[in-house]
Design a protein that fits this description.
Blueprint: E1 3-7, E2 16-20, H1 23-53, E3 56-60, E4 66-71, H2 72-80, E5 84-96, E6 99-109, H3 124-130, E7 147-150, E8 165-168, H4 170-176, H5 199-205, H6 213-226
Parallel strand pairs: 3-6
Antiparallel strand pairs: 1-2, 3-4, 5-6, 7-8
Helix pairs in contact: 3-5
The structure holds zinc ion.
């Protein structure tokens, strides 16, 4: 049963009223409305699906050691190919074909992966992640406009090394200029060093889901020691 909104002509006061549509009028509307609703639903579903597939999933080695953080899309590939099994699910249902199952939050590989140690390359991006985009002099945090500061300036023989470069805001960098921090009475928030894990991984660890806590405790301890 379709209804449509009709506006009465001026002479009747222009008042809107609802009335039951005639069969032929309903036929025209029934073609347009469901199509429009279907299109909106499809767009909405696609947006939700894309957001859901970016949810973080913690990957553990077969020995329960933390390996990496990936997204749900890659996690599902590991799961469906039989390379991993679910350790913890987060309560969100994933529908595929005729079946539905809880989306994984933690996956464990079915086989052991040995990861060789590769020193993290020293570059601007990695320094920013290591320092969490936070000025190491004043504590201001911003994802844009941060600079790299050489603690001992290059003009005074300072090297470009993990323990001599920090993230600094523009005003602190300008204030410090080509001098040592102590010359300007500036103090570092912490002594910089080479990060133990990938800074990207470290960034993910800062807002992890509560169910990851017990697996991440040793990793966080090592990260704190490494910075
Ligand atoms: Zn600053």
């Amino acid at each position: 049963m379709w209804f449509w909104l009709r506006v009465k002509p001026e002479k009747s006061g222009g008042v809107a009223e609802f009335r039951r549509s005639k069969p032929e009028e309903a036929g025209e509307k029934s073609l347009k409305k469901p199509l429009f609703r279907l299109l909106i639903s499809a767009i909405f579903y696609d947006i939700i699906k894309r957001i859901m597939l970016q949810r973080p999933v913690l990957i553990l080695n077969s020995s329960y050691e933390v390996l990496n953080v990936t997204n749900l899309k890659r996690g599902l590939k590991l799961l469906l190919s039989g390379k991993a099994e679910v350790v913890k699910a987060d309560g969100v249902l994933v529908h595929g074909g005729q079946t539905s199952f809880p989306a994984p939050s933690i996956l464990k590989l079915r086989y052991f992966v040995s990861i060789p140690y590769h020193p993290l390359p020293l570059n601007r991006r990695n320094v920013m992640f290591r320092d969490n985009f936070t000025c190491q002099y004043c504590g201001k945090r911003s994802l844009t406009g941060m600079t790299i500061d050489h603690i001992i300036p290059r003009s005074l023989g300072g090297k470009t090394a993990w323990d001599n470069v920090v993230c600094a805001c523009k005003s602190c960098n300008e204030k410090k200029g080509d001098l040592r921090p102590q010359d300007r009475r500036m103090k570092l928030l912490k002594n910089p060093g080479q990060p133990v894990y990938s800074p990207l991984f470290r960034a993910c660890l800062e807002n992890f889901p509560p169910e990851w806590a017990s697996y991440l405790a040793p990793v966080r301890q090592e990260n704190n020691q490494g910075s």
